[in-house]
Amino acid sequence: MTNTILLKSRPEGKPTVSNFEFVKDNSELEINDGEILLETAYVSVDPYLRGRMSDAKSYIPPFELNKPVQSGVVAKVTASKNDNFKNGDYVSGMLAWKTHQVSNGEGLLKVDGSQAPLSTYLGVLGMTGLTAYLGLNQIGKPVAGETIVVSGAAGAVGSVVGQIAKIIGLNVIGIAGTDEKIEMLKTKFGFDAGINYNTSKDIKADIAKAAPNGVDIYFDNVGGPISDAVLFNINRLARIIICGAISVYNSTETPMSVSVQPFLVKNSALMQGFIVSNYAEKFPEAIQQLSAWLSEGKLTYTETIVEGFENIPNAFIDLFEGKNKGKMIVKI
Ligand code: NDP
Questions:
Q1: Nearest protein Cα to ligand 1, atom 19
Q2: Distance from the CA of 181 to the CA of which of 11, 65, 174, 300 falls in 20 to 30 A?
């Protein structure tokens, strides 16, 4: 039997489970020459999927209504008529929210569970690890001794950004939503300081205190007032990496922020948005470095694993409540 999750309606504001529809199909899946049969093992839920659920113009087409939602998936090959894959292989790629599906293998990467846990190919060794590594290095151009602020610091991307910055020798300040997350940033991931944006009375002042020499790099995962507060603390020639803006993904009105231009002009600063897939030619080098740091114990990771196919929509929605530490993954 195949279970599938369709996008039933486009969310208005925060997504709800009623935006999704579960469908069951009892027919046997058949494969033709060149195809493989896949059984889903792990599903990645990511904030950027929210953008694909609306029909606004973006860098990637919106999901179609009444069609399966897609995200990063690790799946097991359970039958193969494709010479590149054999029964028992594991693959990762953009696949549908289905328990079982047929693929021609295009766009799928073989992953090896004996090298690293399978779930890590969706996180630290997957899209979010690549985002952290490439965003920080390609745009941030970090130099030892500089100070970086990371927002969304306890999440999948942010926790890796902070650790890479530490490896390079920066002073690292993380911003996250709970004291428990701040404690984790300092004890598990080696951040120098953390600010809880939910309890801080003055984020701007708290950043100034944690960064007495100012902020050279800001890795922005959240946008909104948190990012405004960082701008007041940037140094001359600061680099601001716009990775995401989760604080406004569910906004129903155009969000208002401070004017960035005076901050950028005064400081000759760079602010640049990026999409990880822009750097696809650098993925092999990035994965090699992330894997090496992992095996040397210089890099670590946290995952929040939710169990059960039926819990995929809830796990996705929980990202907007900060219920995850590190990468949010659903184990099927
Ligand atoms: P996370 O693992 O960081 O999960 C989301 C986190 O965002 C939550 O745990 C929560 O943590 C925080 N959050 C939720 N709502 C708010 C809010 N209103 N204000 C501030 N923080 C909030 O997700 P990812 O690491 O996968 O993604 C992080 C960002 O990077 C997202 O914006 C995403 O869209 C972006 N991204 C961009 C890519 C690119 O190519 N440009 C690729 C991958 C991701 P807390 O408890 O701290 O609030």
A1: 247
A2: 11
Quick one: angle between helices 156-168 and 127-134, nearest 10?
40
Burial class (CB in 10 A: 0-12, 13-18, 19+), 212: exposed
Residue 28 reports pLDDT greater than 90: no
Ligand 1 centre to CA of 327 (Å) is 10
Residue 228 φ then ψ, to 5°: -55, -45
User: For residue 56, is pLDDT > 90?
Assistant: no
Distance in Å, CA 264 to ligand 1 centroid: 24
Q: Which atom of ligand 1 is nearest to the CA of 325?
A: 9
Q: What is the mean pLDDT of residues 11-18?
A: 97
CB 302 within 8 A of CB 325: yes
Average pLDDT over residues 140-154: 98
